[in-house]
Every structure is written in structure tokens, then in C-alpha cells.
Amino acid sequence: MGRLLSMVMAVAFAAGVGHAGAGAAEAQTLKWGSPREIGSLDPYSYGDTYALSVLNHVYEGLVRYNGKQQIEPALATAWTVVSPTIWRFSLRQGVTFHDGASFGADDVIASLERITHPTSPLRGELHGFKSARKVDASVIEIELDSPNPLLLNDLTNVHIFSKAWLVANNSLLPTDVGKGVEGFATNNTNGTGPFKIVSRRRDAQTVFLKNPAWWDKPAHNLERIEFIPIGSAATRVAAMLSGEIDFTNSAPLQDLSRLSASPDIKVLQANELRSTFFGFNWREKLTESDVKDKNPLRDIRVREAMYRGIDIAAIHSRAMRGLSRNTGALVAPSIPGYTPELDQRLPYDAAEARRLLTEAGYPNGFSFLMNCASDALINEEEFCQAVAAMWSRIGLRPNLNIGPRSQQTPKRVRGEFDVVAFGWANEPTLDSSSILTQVIHKKDASAGVFNWGDWGDDRIDALNAQAAAENDAAKRTAMLTAAMKIAKDQHMFIPLHQQPMAWAARSRISSLVQNSDNKPRMWLTVMK
Prior knowledge:
Layout: H1 2-5, E1 28-34, H2 49-55, E2 63-65, E3 71-73, E4 76-83, E5 86-91, H3 105-115, E6 129-136, E7 139-144, H4 151-155, H5 163-168, H6 184-187, E8 195-201, E9 205-210, E10 222-229, H7 233-242, E11 247-248, H8 256-260, E12 265-280, H9 300-308, H10 312-319, E13 325-326, H11 350-359, E14 367-373, H12 380-393, E15 397-403, H13 405-413, E16 419-424, H14 433-440, H15 458-468, H16 473-489, E17 493-506, E18 509-511, E19 526-527
Parallel strand pairs: 1-10, 14-15, 14-16
Antiparallel strand pairs: 2-3, 4-5, 5-7, 6-7, 8-9, 9-10, 11-17, 12-16, 12-17, 13-17, 18-19
């Protein structure tokens, strides 16, 4: 847990009211101005960290990260390692779902089977899962294919459903936003968490009410949360300044000084865990290009040329307003598997980039399809436009396709791109095994869920598999580092930066916790 403690970027601001006074404080309504809508109310529908952070207010796991990013009991009260591949969990008693049904072992088993189902977009989140067994109504055992030293980390992301509710609504099988597969759980919820959703108008407002039957001792005084998607940065800032919203977890970088100048607003700022990078199409042919017979991106010289063609200093100062952290690694410094050596970038060198393209057989460059979203990563549209212009200057011809996340995600899942903007926070494991398993791994039944471009390397997958079964922390970290080095040496991706996070809150919010995972925890929030 020492490593997790070091990852806390910023914790709380207080103005006379703390958690101790929450019980006596007047119940309040908090208006949350979100930068975007979440695609589904089903937490298993897509591995979207942001959507999961919103749904954490409704659904809970057996364990959770607290406000200091330490693992603590949630729906499980205790656990023991029966053998290297069998873990036993004692379940919290007296817990009820929002519909009043009692929580128990059957619900956990149904949820574990749902998230690990072959059609689940999150099937790779529970590494090595083999089966779950009910010992009695309040005890379950999880059996693994091999030892998993990060099982508790994985379980923070496994939200527990009511089995009876799933059965009654024909929802035992998972949904999938990326593939357009919907079900009852897409638009309805029934969790055990601190808030329950009582109404939803997609792209307009989702209303959460306090769950008076929550098993935990409330550390907040919120009666109601109004989650309001506001995609326009300018509109979001105006709503913040006018008092139409109380909080946003996406304060536009270009408006921070304006927001900070208001006596009624406080800005919280840090760098988050999420690293951004570009991924490539590694298939035999490009999706959209004037090169028809082969894929230039499969040539390491071309990938290196594109890497060297990016002026990261200009991206940092202009697109990111000097607030990002430039990186040569795919994971943040606090994530196991990171080393300072991996963080070294190739220098910007347009002349060398052109030379490499010529050496690879493309002296006149080539065209390709570049997929970026307008409402996903911080200032993604701006840095994509800047990079496209830089690549044009070395002779390439990017066709930049920018659209809302709702349009771009299905294209990405279908592999309809040649270059794609990517971001990964390595949650919930807070370990580089996350990106190695979910993104870098060759696509198969249990891994590579986000391998949209058919990239991969058998050596990386082998090292990742060894690390997954290694309980010695030093040995497994060395394996992860070796795997990450192969990806770096192959220029499998082009790293950019750790993105900044900036929240803004009105002064009537007197207690608010901000961590490097960039997840609002409204059950720890107090308002005047």
C-alpha cells in the first residue's frame, strides 16, 4: 500500500466544515457539470474509467479504494488466501440493493460470471478467473487458473448486481456499448451504493438520490446529485461562473485563470494517472490510404519517423497550456513497471523523420486515416490537429477524422483507423499489467480487449503471463518492465504525455477529495 499512498496527488480542501460535521449539516443538492455523458448505466458495458467512476456512486465491489487510494473492505468484510489459487471472502451482512432485496453470495457469483463471460468487454479485468463457488449465504470462494497477486485490485472494478434483478430482466449476459449490444441494465440500475438513480434523460440530466439504507456510515450531506453533461467547454465555464452548476471534474485548461479569479470558485489541479499515446493499425493494409498493397505502419522505420516528427514541446506549451507532463513511457511514474529509462523520449527531428521515411521506401509519404475524439482525452482535438500538421510537414498526409466519443468508439472497436489517439490510466489495478493485458496483448478470448489495431508481440505476452503468476514483487515488476521495454523498442505506440486534471468547485462545497485517479467521490463531499 505504500506505493498507493504515494499516488495521492491532492486531497480535499476544507473551509470550516469537515466530515465530522457532515451528519449535522443540512442536506444539499449538488449539480455536477460533466464534460460528457456516460454511454451506459451498465458498468460492464465498456471499459471506460470515467463511466465507472460515475457508476461507483450506484454500484459497489467486494473491496474498494478509499479517498487515499488504499484498498479497504466494501461488500466483503474479510478475505483469506486458502491456497495460491483459491481466495475465500466473507460477505457483509445486512446489505440491501436499492430495490430492497438482500445481498448475498448468489449475487456475487452471478456478477463474477457476468463480467468474465466471453462476450463481456471487461472480461480481461479479472485476471486468471476460473470459477466462483458459494460456501454459504455469506461466504464465497474464487478459484484462479494461476496465482494473481493483484486480485484485490482487480475486484475494485467488479461491481455487484442483484442476481434476482438480472434474472427478472433477462440481463444475466453482459451488454457492450462498443458493439451496440444493449439490455435492461443499459438504462436501469439496482446497486447497493450510496446513491440510486431515479431518473435519466440521456444527454440532459441523470438524477441520483441518497440511499438512506446504505450500509456504510455516510461521510456526506448530499441528498441529491444532478449529473448534467455539458460538452461545450465554454458553456461549462459559463455555467460554473453563473452558479448553474456547483462542480465540474473537467475545467478547461484555457479557462483556469478565469475560474480562479472568481472569489466563489476554487480550482484543484494536478496530473492524473492517465497517459496518452497514439496507436497504429498493424493489419496487412491501411484502412484508408493511397498505398493499397501493403501497410507502411508495420515498418518500424515509419513508426520511428512519425515519433520523431512530433514536437512534444510545442504540444505541451500550446495544446496542453503547459500543464501536461511529457513522457516517453506508457504508464505514470507511480505505476509498477515504470522506470526512468522507459520515460526517455526520442528527440524531435523532422529531418531524420524524412530520412527514415525515404529509407523505408516512402520519400513522398502516404495518406492514412487518423481517428481522434472531440470529448474524450483532455484537449484531444487540439493535440491531434497539431500532430496532424507536424506529420504533414514531414511529408505524410493524415486524414484527420474528429467526432464525439459516441461516434468514434464504434469505429475504433471495428478497427476503422490507421492511427488512433489513446489514453490509459491502468485502473483499477494501478499496475502496468493493466495496459499489458487489456491494450498491448494480442487479442484472444481473455485479453487484448482494447487491441483495436492487431498490434502485439509474443514476447510481451509471455512476460506478462509470467508476471501474473509471480508473487515476488521485485521479480514481477522486473518482468513488467521488460515487457514495456519491448513495446518501447518496437515503437509499438507513440507516447505523448500524462494528461492534466483540473476540477472547479463553488465555495459552498466545503469538503472534496481529488486523487490522481481523477474520480470524484461524492460520498465524501460536504456542502454548506
